[in-house]
Amino acid sequence: MKSVRALIPDWISECRGTSLRDDLLAGTITAVLLVPQGMALALLAGLPPILGLYAGILPPILYALFGSSRTMAVGPASVAALLVATALGGLGHAPGSAEAIQGAITLAALSAVILLAMGFLRLGALANYLSHPVLAGFVSGAALVIIFSQLPQLTGVALPRDAALPEQLMALINGLAGLQPPLLLMGGCGMILLFLARTPLVLLLQKMGLQAGPAKLLSRCAPLMIVLLATGLTALLGLERLGIPVVGDIPAGLPQPSLDFLHLTDWRALLPAALVISIIGYVESVSVAKALAWRRRQRIDPNRELLALGAANAGAAFSGTMPVAGGFARSVVNFDAGARTQFAGIVTALLVALTALFLTPLFQSLPLPILAALIVVAVIPLIDLHTFRAAWHYDKADGLAMLITFLGVVLVDIEMGLLAGLCLSVIALLWRTSHPHVAVVGRVPGTDYYRNVSRHEVETWPNLLLLRIDESLYFANTAYVEQLVGNALAQRPEVRHVVLICTAMNHVDLSAVETLQGMALNLREAGVTLHLAGVKGPIMDRLRTSGLMEALGEGHIYFNTEQAVLDLVSQNRSPAHF
Amino acid sequence: MKSVRALIPDWISECRGTSLRDDLLAGTITAVLLVPQGMALALLAGLPPILGLYAGILPPILYALFGSSRTMAVGPASVAALLVATALGGLGHAPGSAEAIQGAITLAALSAVILLAMGFLRLGALANYLSHPVLAGFVSGAALVIIFSQLPQLTGVALPRDAALPEQLMALINGLAGLQPPLLLMGGCGMILLFLARTPLVLLLQKMGLQAGPAKLLSRCAPLMIVLLATGLTALLGLERLGIPVVGDIPAGLPQPSLDFLHLTDWRALLPAALVISIIGYVESVSVAKALAWRRRQRIDPNRELLALGAANAGAAFSGTMPVAGGFARSVVNFDAGARTQFAGIVTALLVALTALFLTPLFQSLPLPILAALIVVAVIPLIDLHTFRAAWHYDKADGLAMLITFLGVVLVDIEMGLLAGLCLSVIALLWRTSHPHVAVVGRVPGTDYYRNVSRHEVETWPNLLLLRIDESLYFANTAYVEQLVGNALAQRPEVRHVVLICTAMNHVDLSAVETLQGMALNLREAGVTLHLAGVKGPIMDRLRTSGLMEALGEGHIYFNTEQAVLDLVSQNRSPAHF
Fold first, then answer.
1. S-S: B119 plus which of A83, A441, A525, B306, CB 3.0-4.6 Å?
2. Count of domains in chain B?
3. What is the mean pLDDT of chain A?
4. Structural domain containing residue A324
5. What is the mean pLDDT of residues A402-422?
6. B131 to A475: CB separation less than 8 angstroms, yes or no
């Protein structure tokens, strides 16, 4: 029963009156942004522009039916498009060729399978293992690679595809003689206008007496206006004669539903790329969806997101286009434009479908430098210097993980960069937790508080050593802690009882239990008794089943430090103090 | 100055009177054990038996000069010998050939370089990342592989070298027709006598009126006695005619110091094996050294151990033999026999040298099945079912890591097994810490204690949500915690203040700070203020440098939960409660 109800989108019940009107407006604004962006992203991926529109029709409708985000806009996305381009380039498929299209469809189908499988296995939490600095480094690197990929369209200088960035930069410098001013001029103007169409235009419109709301809406229509303006100028003035390439004939019509993706050629070769596309697409989508849901106290279900994105990618494969994801920029536009439910996403999809059916002739003379400008302006904000500065400042390990990921993506290879970042963040975690803080403590006179002897004036007892361990004990730090205990004992030959204070331990693994056991036995041979204090309930339950209790021998596990001291000091009757 | 003093072994100053006499006895006992074991281990490694003696001369002397353990016995070791055999087999070198010897020397030289480099870089703590279950699984698997490697000598059935164990088992079953009863009889008798020479012999001798000490010493000489008895019988009765293979002519003499290892052939191919030999040898040696040092309150310096083991392996390469390590069994014998300082190790080395010089003709008729029996009896205790049971019982993740390592070593390949175990133990750690315990808490009436609302009768306030997080926050659990906070809030629409209680957090990484920051901002948009309480000093220092303080806005960081409640409840003046 629950599964049947889960098939009806939650948001249907919320569609009424104002909400419908808001969604209609927001969906329209988003469509206005999506049409030129979709075509540009398809070109970035090495596909015919119409496939960018196809990626904006069936996939968002499927997401709307299954997703848990009310306002995320699913469709073509920049990092996914770059990953498609890299994967197809790696197989040697020429941009726009039939093999490239077949490869993109295969990638979408594989992504659908991966995402659906992860969803059914409830592996949504796997994406959490990608830390923020690694993701930021990855996206920043990808954005830089995307910008370089647009330079041929903006300069007329041919750059080697699939080469590392330094090599591309050298080719650009060597090829500066072949610079084509018309391209540079059109692309440059496009970029400047697109930048101005953001905050400056909003401020200008507000100065002219417009409310903030309508000013923002107008600013969001600006990219389409700029595209139409450039297209009109190119057609009217015949700029094609100056060597400015245009989109050309776009076949009108809707995607032809196809099951082509069932003959998966190349699927083995494309599997690693599909895995990266799925994971990155999912992680980015979920973080967008979460950020938006928080603002309205809505919930995102990570496993439902996997299923919904899987369905959206199946829709992409079915429509014969490239993989899709939830895009950050378009989703924020949709949200800010007032979207309440996924009805907005369906409005966008229908408008894009109408464009694909009837309006493609409008874009025939659209100059490619303008589409390149659109992409560059869209991805520049993805280069996240802010996070890098914050990471470096907060913790060198986080900063290093981001830097290595970024450099790996830019200098070596997209997948290698991601892998390097993942490994480094795990190594940093191991390193950090393997050097826990361990303090020798004593009692603050007249209280039952125990504090670090090197920072406070506290009571101590010559044959009693109190050690507080500020970390969970596990294989990577157990030897370190053992070493610290050994050192502390070597300096205090008169000690007869050691109490480990475990209040900050959230877990104790088998390696740690065995170390404690060995420590207890070895200490007994040396005439010292090991005790524990302040052990949390769940840890205590496990310790009871282990051999530690026998190894402790005369040693006790005390409820807290005070109890340990009261018991051990009285039974020792150390004459120097009592 | 410090470095010059570090060159003089610490134990020199402790050598006097009784200590010298104890060391003399212990060193002799250890030598009596080492002579037959060394020859057996050399054969296991695929080398001439005399190289096993060579591995017991210069390497322990060098370890004695540089090592920090007083009582560890360094020399040929079973797992290292197996790893040498596997590596040489992988290169296709026939056992006993000149290429095999050159390969073993190369491995010793590479291990020396690796260990010395790790020592100079102070990377001793790296070995801590090998968890007890993974090490136990690895050693257990290696022991089973060693036992299978001895089956041809014990049965006369030829088994395929370098094949996985199931294949070897099939070959053994298929070859049962070729079973040679004389080998089986001699090997079987050898094993039974070697087992009886342990505890049963000690008990028998004690029953016969001997003290425990002398009884143990006699039992330790038994292996040599059994070897000499078998050799004598073989020579006297001419058992070679029955098809029992013997060690044969052993060239008498000391190792010829050689710098052959400077022409490192095959070194690229042998590097991975050398890495595993170094790391495993180091980890095993240090755990032995630590266990012994604890009993006398002595200290082990992991980085000095790396240097000393590196020197010992350089000595092995210089003597033209295989890599060495600190062996568990021989070290315990040395310790129990009363060794006080490394003078015992030097005594052992000198006695082994005398054996190599003058006594090799004694071992000419030593039957190989007896040496195989010696190895099998020595490695059976390494199959650690106890740890497996304990691990499985204590924590399925620990048990699984041990099982996968064991199966990887036995069924696939020694290095792959180790790698799989390492990966699995890191994955288990990530998994564990990524699902922290988070409790909604309330105040125990009349106190300032805060406890889980679902377990205790506590006061709560409708617009105040108190959440205690029992784990350090980092990238792998930050989304999970965010999700829990979101769920808790979705169930309580009237909440206006959320307080995260951070007393159990030992670290907060950048991903977590960013999540907290996003959470604070998103909550503000929803009209809820985020606060923290009980943040530890070092974490507080870092948070201050991050953007979290601005993101909190009206939110505070309270010293403890009580302070937060006093402040927030009074300013809210929620009429329902106050």
1. B306
2. 2
3. 86
4. 14-125+245-379
5. 88
6. yes
* Alpha carbons B284 and B288: distance in angstroms, whole number: 6
Instruction: Give the dihedral sign, CA A109/A111/A112/A117.
Output: positive
**How confident is the model at residue A338, as a pLDDT?**
81
Task: Give A437's pLDDT tier (boundaries 50, 70, 90).
Answer: confident
Whether B8 is covered by a domain: the verdict is: no
State whether B315 and B363 are in the same domain. yes
Banded model confidence at residue A17, pLDDT cuts 50, 70, 90: low
With an 8 Å Cβ cutoff, are B507 and A433 in contact?
yes
B401 and B443 together in one domain: no
Are A506 and B471 within 8 A, CB to CB? yes
Distance separating alpha carbons of residues B115 and B279, to the nearest angstrom: 8
pTM check: above 0.95 = no
Q: What percent of chain B has pLDDT over 70?
A: 95
Name the residue among B395, B436, B538 with its Cβ closest to that of A510: B395
pLDDT at B11 over 80: no
Q: Do A434 and B523 touch (CB under 8 A)?
A: no
Q: Is residue B10 part of a domain?
A: no
**Confidence band for A1, pLDDT divided at 50, 70 and 90:** very low
* Interface contact A132-B471, CB threshold 8 A: no
- Mark whether B72 and B144 lie in a shared domain: yes
Q: In this complex, which of B302, B509, B536 lies closest to A398 when CB atoms are compared?
A: B509
pLDDT at B15: 65
Chain A touched by B426 (CB under 8 Å): yes
Residues B526 and B449 in one domain: yes
Q: Which residues of B touch A490 (CB under 8 A)?
A: 297-299
Give the pLDDT score at B501.
Answer: 92
Per residue in B176-185, pLDDT tens?
Answer: 888 888 899 9
Residue of higher predicted confidence among B216 and A402? A402
Q: What distance in Å separates the CA atoms of residue A198 and residue B25, rounded to the nearest whole number?
A: 88
Q: Judge contact between B234 and B365, C-beta under 8 A.
A: yes
**Does B329 contact A at CB distance below 8 Å?**
no
Check if the beta carbon of residue B569 is closer than 8 Å to that of residue B443.
no
At residue A267's C-alpha, the angle toward residues A266 and A268, to 5°, is 95
pLDDT value at position A348? 94
Judged by CB atoms closer than 8 Å, whether chains meet at B129 and A430 is answered as yes
Strand pairing of A438-443 and A325-326?
A: unpaired
Q: Which pLDDT tens digit goes with each residue over B59-112?
A: 999 999 998 888 899 999 988 999 999 898 888 888 888 889 999 999 999 999
Q: Alpha-carbon Rg of chain B, whole angstroms?
A: 31
Chain A residues within 8 A of B429 when measuring between CB atoms: 430, 474, 476, 509
* Chain-chain contact of B480 with A125 (C-beta, under 8 angstroms): yes
| A339 and A442 housed in the same domain | no
Q: With a threshold of 0.90, tell me whether the complex ipTM lies above it.
A: no
Do residues B385 and B450 share a domain? no
**A430 interface with B at CB cutoff 8 Å:** yes
Task: Identify all chain B residues contacting A433, using CB atoms and an 8 Å cutoff.
Answer: 472, 507
Q: Looking at the structure, do residues B161 and B241 belong to the same domain, yes or no?
A: yes
**What is each CA distance from A179 to A154, A243, A416, in whole angstroms?**
9, 12, 33
Residue B390 and residue A507: Cβ atoms within 8 Å? Answer: no
Q: Is residue B433 part of a domain?
A: no
Answer whether residue A159 is part of any domain. Answer: no
Residue A354 tokens, joined: 């109408």
Residues 6+ apart with CB under 8 A from A172: A151, A155, A157, A159
Please judge whether B510 and A133 are an interchain contact, meaning their C-beta atoms are less than 8 angstroms apart: yes
Name all contacts of A205-214 with Cβ < 8 Å and 24+ positions apart. none
B336 touches chain A (CB under 8 A): no
pLDDT digits (tens, 9 = 90+) for B326-377: 987 788 888 887 888 889 999 999 999 999 999 888 888 889 899 889 889 8
Does residue B266 sit in helix, strand or coil?
coil
